[in-house]
């Protein structure tokens, strides 16, 4: 209640009544002190797990030096990737840790559309699209490049105590940080129960669950790209763009056939398609030598990929990585699990080099022949060699189609690089 309202509404009260009413108003208006608390008798600052998770997602206090949050490596303003730039103005291949020194070995994937990944399964048989394509047999789903966590909560639990990421020493330290904030304390107790902080692991896992629920909201999955709008009849001009020709190539079972690995079997009508099968493949990605030199692992280190997942022990799975979503792919470079390629066109040329008589035998970013695969023994050459070679027009059209998969809020981030798609 505002003081002016008080004066207007009680002009004839006695002095003792006035004092009593003022005290009551002050008690109700001020609430309890400390940590930005919401006050005794008030609703908690965050009423749902998702609301609480949104705050936690952006809270740098959950890192050792209070410099890094989930949003640092998954910026909502840049398609949920780490868009911090280096001295040259480029987005680095791997992320810098909270200590300002540590570097990872894998590129931070977008958190957008991650909610659609099924729980990790080590050995499944999956019907391929289109009909008649050979079945996929192997691992599927999970979070991280190697699927080592089943769900978003499991993924969210990792970075705060990872020594080269947010670097808190343990779960207890993370829970202590939560208790510094009265809004968090009250909201956790309201949502998860009064005794949630009696058990450190339970409180930590509740934090991860809240972040996971935030990542399941529409903010992470808008489905409002140019292609989505075309499918809904809101963007008929799409058919006149290079992206339409790229779509035909992408879904062709004879030519490029990208959809074999970048289409979800439940999305035959293409609406709300996430453009990943969640399968695991070794596509011959070379070592990112610049990253290995910077992070100290050196050129002799091998990223085991799927074999690094504790649920996997078959050496034949070494070097395989989860097929990423192509949603927002035009604005989520660098590319591949190790960020070895800067440009989307380079990625398409890399795939084409496996075709007989391909014209794309040189990496356009280095001016040299494509480097050897990091794990040559398990490269899926049968899939990579399928289809015909692509000419430059084909590649332009495919790049334009992938640009059309960008959420509306991120379209301004697309760098045309001399290619006019006709949008």
CATH architecture annotation of the largest domain? Orthogonal Bundle
Number of distinct beta strands? 6
Rg, please?
A: 26 Å
CATH class of the largest domain: Mainly Alpha
Number of distinct helices: 14
What gross morphology would you assign?
globular
CA distance, first residue to last residue: 53 Å
* CATH topology label of the largest domain: Cytochrome Bc1 Complex, Chain D, domain 2
What would CATH call the homologous superfamily of the largest domain?
A: Cytochrome c-like domain
Q: Structural class of the helix and strand makeup?
A: mainly alpha
Task: Report low-confidence residues grouped into runs of 5 or more.
Answer: 1-39
The ordered string of helix (H) and strand (E) elements is HHHHEEHHHHHHEHEHEEHH
Strand content: under 5%
Number of domains: 3
Helix content: 25-40%
Whole-number mean pLDDT: 90
Strand order of the largest sheet: 1-2
Q: Major sheet: size, sense and barrel closure?
A: 2 strands, antiparallel
Structural account:
- The chain is mainly alpha-helical and 423 residues long.
- The chain has three domains: 1-30; 49-108 and 150-219, Cytochrome Bc1 Complex, Chain D, domain 2 (Orthogonal Bundle), CATH 1.10.760.10; 116-143 and 223-413, Cytochrome c-like domain (Cytochrome Bc1 Complex, Chain D, domain 2), CATH 1.10.760.10.
- Helices cover 29% and strands 4% of the residues.
- The protein has 14 helices and six strands.
- The protein has helices at 3-9, 15-30, 49-57, 70-73, 152-156, 171-179, 182-192, 200-214, 226-231, 242-251, 289-295, 344-352, 381-384, 392-403; strands at 121-126, 136-140, 280-281, 321-322, 362-363, 368-369.
- A two-stranded antiparallel sheet has the order 1-2. Strands 3-4 form a two-stranded antiparallel sheet. A two-stranded antiparallel sheet has the order 5-6.
- Strand 5 (362-363) and strand 6 (368-369) form a beta hairpin.
- Helix 3 (49-57) packs across helix 8 (200-214).
- The longest helix has 16 residues, at 15-30.
- The chain is globular, with a radius of gyration of 26 Å.
């Amino acid at each position: 209640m505002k003081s002016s309202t008080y004066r207007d509404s009680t002009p004839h009260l006695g002095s003792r009544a006035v004092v009593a009413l003022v005290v009551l108003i002050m008690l109700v208006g001020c609430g309890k002190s400390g940590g930005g608390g919401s006050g005794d008798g008030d609703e908690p600052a965050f009423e749902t797990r998702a609301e609480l998770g949104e705050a936690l997602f952006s809270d740098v206090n959950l890192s050792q030096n209070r410099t890094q949050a989930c949003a640092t490596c998954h910026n909502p303003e840049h398609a949920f990737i780490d868009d911090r730039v280096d001295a040259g103005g480029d987005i680095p291949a791997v992320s810098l840790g909270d200590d300002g020194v540590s570097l990872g070995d894998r590129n931070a994937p977008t958190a957008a559309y991650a909610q659609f990944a099924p729980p990790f399964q080590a050995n499944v048989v999956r019907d391929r699209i289109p009909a008649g394509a050979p079945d996929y047999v192997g691992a599927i789903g999970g979070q991280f490049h190697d699927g080592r966590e089943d769900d978003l909560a499991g993924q969210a639990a990792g970075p705060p105590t990872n020594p080269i990421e947010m670097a808190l020493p343990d779960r207890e330290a993370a829970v202590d940080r939560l208790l510094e904030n009265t809004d968090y304390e009250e909201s956790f107790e309201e949502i998860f129960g009064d005794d949630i902080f009696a058990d450190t692991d339970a409180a930590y896992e509740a934090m991860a669950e809240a972040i996971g629920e935030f990542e399941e909201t529409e903010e992470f999955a808008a489905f409002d790209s140019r292609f989505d709008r075309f499918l809904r009849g809101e963007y008929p001009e799409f058919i006149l763009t290079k992206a339409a020709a790229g779509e035909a190539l992408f879904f062709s079972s004879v030519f490029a056939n990208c959809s074999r690995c970048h289409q979800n079997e439940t999305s035959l009508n293409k609406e709300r398609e996430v453009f990943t099968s969640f399968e695991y493949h070794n596509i011959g990605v070379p070592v990112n030598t610049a990253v290995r030199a910077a992070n100290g692992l050196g050129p002799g280190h091998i990223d085991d990929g799927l074999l690094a997942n504790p649920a996997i022990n078959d050496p034949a799975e070494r070097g395989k990585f989860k097929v990423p979503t192509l949603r927002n792919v035009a604005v989520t470079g660098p590319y591949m699990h190790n960020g070895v390629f800067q440009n989307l066109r380079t990625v398409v040329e890399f795939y084409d080099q496996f075709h007989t008589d391909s014209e794309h035998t040189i990496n356009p970013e280095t001016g040299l022949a494509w480097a050897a695969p990091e794990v040559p023994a398990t490269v899926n050459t049968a899939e990579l060699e399928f289809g015909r070679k692509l000419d430059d027009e084909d590649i332009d059209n495919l790049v334009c189609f992938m640009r059309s998969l960008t959420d509306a809020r991120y379209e301004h981030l697309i760098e045309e690089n001399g290619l006019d798609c006709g949008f």
